[in-house]
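Researcher: Next entry: Glycosyltransferase (Streptomyces nanshensis).
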Amino acid sequence: MTVLWGISFDATPISGVVVEFVKTARHFRDRGYEVHLDLGYDVKADKNAFFRPYRDEAVQLPDWIRLDRVDELSEVPGYDQEFVATVLREYVRDGAGAHLLPRVHAAAEAVAERLVATWERRGVSFVMVENGTLPENITYTTALYSAIERYGRRHRLGPFVLWRDHDLMWQSEPGTGKYGTFPYPSTVAPVNSPYIRYVALHEEARRRTLEWVPDLKNITVLPNTFAHTDTHADTRTHAAGGEERERAGFRRHFGIPQDAPLIARFTRIIPQKRIDRDIHLLARLPERAGDVHLFVAGDTQEAPDEHARLVRLAESLGVAGRVVFGGRLAPHESGVPAAGDEGHSVRDLLAEAQLASFLTSYDYESYGNPVGEAIASRVPYLTTRYQLYDTVYGDRGFRAPVMELTDGDLPTAAFVDSVAELILDERKREQMADFNHRLGKRHFGEDTAGEVLDELFLPPMGERTRMSVVLPVYNEAANLPAVLASLHGQCGPDGPLDRDLYEVVLVDNNSTDDTVAIARRFAADHPDLALHIVPEPEQGVACARKTGMDFAAQRSRRRAGADPEQRFYLVSADADCRVDARWLWELLSAMDAGKAAIGVCDYYYEPEHFTGRPRLWDAIQRTLRCRAVTFSLFGGFPDGKGFAVDRDAYEKVGGIEIFYQLQNGRFVNHLSDDWDFGILVRGSGEDITYVPASRVEINPRRVNHAIDEVITGRAYGSDGIIVMRDIRIDGTAGGESGGPDGDSGGGLGAADGGTGSGAASLPETASLPDLTEEEALQAWEFSVKDFTPKNTILPVLLTPSLLDDDAVAEFFGPSLTERLGRRIAEITEEMRVVDFTPIHSYKTPSYRLYFEFADEIFARLRATVGEDIGHPPPLPPCLRDVPQERFTEFVRYYCEDRESGEAHNYFGNGGVF
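Model: Predicted structure:
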């Protein structure tokens, strides 16, 4: 499992900082990461939570977040709450306390060691630091920078850290002097690191950061994002249906009349938030605005004196009965189950409110998330023109009553009138809310974060890299060391291949064994070969291969200094097969020498794995001999076990396309993605070349696993559905343990392009029994029926111009070449086949041509491959009695009968041998 480690310097279970972490981490969770979060109890001294065990904090967070913390941190000598508070007070704030620095550095070194050890044990791939520049604890910040440097260097991770300062909030209220004065010489300033991407929430925050650290290069803007929904729509829908609304109890619970206009204020109840302005506003609203109520959502115990002051103010202004202090509600969009009063959340409050208020102090609030949450919920808002209001919202064109603080400290008559007008004019409220909602979705929609993260955190690629080897894996702990060793040991004509020329992209498809840990250890032990580990949460080799190739293609376009005229190749490999030493070099040389879009490898089995099984070995070798002849003629089609594709051609056709099929009532992705991709590329007019010197050894478990179904003609599914039993038991036949969900076809174990799995690498299988003569005949017929339409007919069906090639024409002979070309044109016109991509679209015409020309094609195979190829297998019984003059007609009916799927069962559904 790929792990994201989050660290919040906020030291609270839920806060604006933690909510933003949750929203960003969700993008990683959706990409297959396991998410861990350290709440920072062992960082901040002023929260009195140092080393306190977690209790019920997890219930306030989504269940996919695992609360975690640095192992053995309490054992660091001298590192405790008192020490952190002393350093903050004496050194950071007062500029004295230099005598403390040796203790700071010693403790930081010990903390860094524990950070790295914890990340190693958890298998961390990505780190998110929230408010890490907060100078509360310079010891921990120093340690964090050191740990990032060590861990990144050890694992060759590239930029694996997102370091987000929430608008440098510790610089707000600069008059307090808590952290000294600008430029804060006693704090730990951000450092340029190849492992860290700094993000600010808006351009002003970025500007202020660069004012503080002018040479900081890797900082960009990642705005807070919000889930744009219409909370009022739920209310209207339920009301229209006469049903009991989910939120119907909100007003009743808090004693708010059902028809009273409601202003929502959700914030901390502290003096800086200026809730007194809302109470004055409430008192000044004219009677014509109705029985307006104010709901304040916040912890009344955080600053009890301020809460008491506000209660007294409401009483003195005669509005105490219309001010509700509702306590802390669950955050609006943290993904947290409602944990507030009676299970209510901020989302519930906004669903009931006509307006949301944010009359905060000028220099305290740096972003204004409540404004963004109101916009996203389609609720009009009112606000002060606080210091950063225009930067975040105003300058983008959002519409709202704005209290100008230059006009006074409390709401003016003009401001009160503008609020009253909104309360009274429902149409105006709706128009304003609609406008803001559309604008907000464009600027702060959830997709924004995903796009920025994808842009920021693609690991860099060396300018000399020419190839990315994509290796999908699922539970390959047994095979992976040998596979990675073979990739590391690639050779060129004069010795080891320059490892700057290629990299490995390992796509983990939900492995539950030590696959990822083994890959990480290999990367650490072989720093000369770049190895990237990418998660793919959707099960299936097609999804995994596509993810890896898309990842590599996108990064390859950013190679600084790379020759734009030089081709870049995406290379597919399988984790249960071994590649020969010159595998990559031969592919690279062949692709560079020609213009083909795809280079296809040669495949072979080691004969010692079939000692004592001569009949099975003969069937395998006949298939591979046929393959060598036809691939030399037509270029063949790619197999996931080994092929290379030019990146531009890959992107031209839209990359690997995922097809789905139903298996046992569930959709699973089709296992022939490699074959379908080759068809897509050839159908686009690109060429495929066969590279016989680039060789891959096939794991014999693929044959052993499927042989019982091959000899009965049912391998790889039936009725047109290509599925594959998982290969999980000792690498031998009969492994049906299934994928992660226990099904027999959803995993990556596939003989035709799947990655498989296994308990042993290239297992010894010579002791298994051979086939009987009858079984051997059945196996050969199954294999050749699958092979012939795909490899002798389909290439010319897709590219009829191949028939003009002298070698192809010589293979078929003049008469067959002419008649085959004519029939391809006729069938194409008859079927109006334009796009051969969907699997049934290209199967049907291939099958029809096979039946029409089988005798002649087999004659040519006997002449070119060997007499032992024999004659076509018997016809399906239903075709044997069809009159010869109507044979072509009934072949069409047979091949196009999708209801029975008989033709698909006859030909088989996946590559054999």
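Model: Note for the record: The two ends are 33 Å apart (CA to CA).
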